[in-house]
Amino acid sequence: MKVIFMGTPDFSVGTLEHLIQAGHEIVLVVTQPDKPKGRGKAMQFPPVKEAALAHGLEVYQPAKIREPECVEYLREKNADIMVVVAFGQILPAEILEMPRYGCVNVHASLLPKYRGAAPIQWAVINGEKVTGVTTMRMDQGVDTGDMILKEEVVLREDETGGSLFDRLAETGAKLCVRTLEAIEQGTAEYIPQNHEEATHTSMITRQFGNIDWTKPACELERLVRGLSPWPGTYTQLDGKTLKIWRSALAEPEETFEAAEPGTVTAVTGNAIHVKTGQGILALKEVQLEGKKRMTADAFLRGFPLEPGKSLGGQQKEGSGLSL
After folding, report:
1. Claim to verify: residue 194 and residue 295 sit in the same structural domain
2. Which of 11, 161, 242, 308 could pair covalently with 121 via S-S, beta carbons 3.0-4.6 A apart?
3. Is residue 319 part of a domain?
4. Quick check: 82 pLDDT over 50?
5. Where are the beta strands (DSSP E) in 31-79?
6. Domain boundary residue among 173, 201, 229?
């Protein structure tokens, strides 16, 4: 089929690659505009643009896809279908209704659960046992369109937002190829979502990773995994930001039962134990502001901690967000 592909981040690249490998004609790749990044503010291509250019495909980067000239440019391509994977802009009705087979979206959850932003991180944070990918025919709502195909993915005990991202990206890419095959052959079934069962996720910012030690250890352990590698979780140690890369649940120390949440209760050879609102969180891998990421034992050799030390408090302005 003649396909207009819309996507921006790494998650979208695998689907574009699989569609090319499946023999579809990609007549246009639409992605977000280049953005400045880093201290030098050099303009950086979106990952989808880099992949498209590597294949010699035409790239289109409108600031606002709904502008009349943008809509007309898409129409001129006379595509059979549009595939949308984490594009980052809402499509108006005139685009959704433009292709013969409509617009198909690849969404990283088992709809109608986890509509909206960051479904991958939230699945880990909320302790889901199973998540997956859904392909759907887009309508004007946010992830509300009729479902076409689904595939489940079982979360591992040590699953992180990053590892689940990679697994769902690969699953979604293959599912999209199967979806287009079913549509082209006329065997696709379009299943309306039960909107009463829908759940919604919110955007995740860097500040969301600031550890609240009054929460239970089990929730914080999932938060650390869910926000790894981005945006990451962190706390404060002697006025500096301490990023937490890896943690685990630990047995409570009875001598610190009355200690305030955020108190270091024990320092072992490979972990820093911290009291939470319920239970103990063992910090296994950390990164102090201005230092390299390291295991707890390596960190402790250069920065010895004693039980009774407090973590947390107010983060100083501008610290720790570029680790």
Report:
1. no
2. 161
3. no
4. yes
5. 35-37, 42-44, 59-60
6. 201
Residue among 261, 251, 255, 257 nearest 216 (CA): 261
Closest C-alpha among 145, 125, 121 to residue 135: 145
Do 124 and 159 meet the contact criterion of CB atoms below 8 Å apart? yes
| Domain carrying residue 28 | 2-201
Question: Model confidence over 149-176: pLDDT tens digits?
Answer: 999 999 999 999 999 999 999 999 999 9
> What CATH number should be reported for the domain holding residue 246?
3.10.25.10
The token pair that represents 292 in the structure block: 């390299």
Asked if the structure places residue 237 within a domain, the reply is: yes
Question: Which residue type does 18 have?
Answer: H
**168 membership: H or E segment, kind and range:** helix 161-185
Contact 129, 154 (CB under 8 A): yes
Q: Which of 77, 89, 86 is nearest to 48 (CA)?
A: 86
pLDDT per residue as tens digits for the range 189-216:
999 999 999 999 999 999 999 999 999 9
Per residue in 305-316, pLDDT tens?
Answer: 999 999 997 544
* Residue among 252, 257, 255, 235 nearest 244 (CA): 235
Assess whether 60 and 125 both reside in one domain: yes
| Beta pairing, strands 200-201 & 115-116 | parallel
The DSSP element (H or E) to which 224 belongs, if any, is helix 217-226
pLDDT at 287: 98
Q: Peptide bond before 112: cis, by omega within 30 degrees of 0?
A: yes
The residues near 292 (Cβ < 8 Å, ≥ 6 apart) are none
Alpha-carbon span 16 to 12, nearest angstrom: 7
Q: Are residues 220 and 172 part of one domain?
A: no
Number of domains within the chain: 2
